[in-house]
């Protein structure tokens, strides 16, 4: 970090993207569980 950097806060776009990726990962994990459950029922 440079001394001129104001604070250790990422820009809004980066924070939004991190939130979106976290949400997408959660949805993907849930979909995997559902898929495993569906495959187990066959």
Task: Give an account of the 3D structure.
It holds the Pfam family MmpB. The chain crosses the membrane at residues 20-41. Keywords: Membrane, Transmembrane, Transmembrane helix. With 42 residues, this protein is mainly α. The protein has a domain at 14-42. The protein has one helix and no strands. It has one helix at residues 12-41.
The termini sit apart by: 55 Å
Helix/sheet category:
mainly alpha
Q: For the report, how would you describe the main beta sheet?
A: none
Q: What are the secondary-structure elements, in order, as H or E?
A: H
Strand content: under 5%
Mean pLDDT: 88
CA-based shape = rod-shaped
Q: Percent range for helical residues?
A: over 70%
| Structure annotation, total helices | 1
Give the low-pLDDT segments. none
Number of strands: 0
Radius of gyration: 18 Å
InterPro entries: MmpB-like
Pfam families: MmpB
Transmembrane segments: 20-41
Keywords: Membrane, Transmembrane, Transmembrane helix
Q: What can be said about this structure in brief?
A:
Helix content is 71%, strand content 0%. It is built from 1 helix and no strands.
Task: From the structure above, extract its key features.
single chain, 42 residues, mainly alpha, transmembrane, MmpB-like, transmembrane helix, membrane
């Amino acid at each position: 970090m440079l001394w001129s950097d104001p604070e250790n806060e990422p820009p809004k776009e980066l924070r939004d993207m991190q939130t979106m990726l976290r949400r997408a990962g959660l949805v993907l994990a849930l979909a995997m569980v559902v898929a495993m459950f569906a495959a187990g029922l066959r």
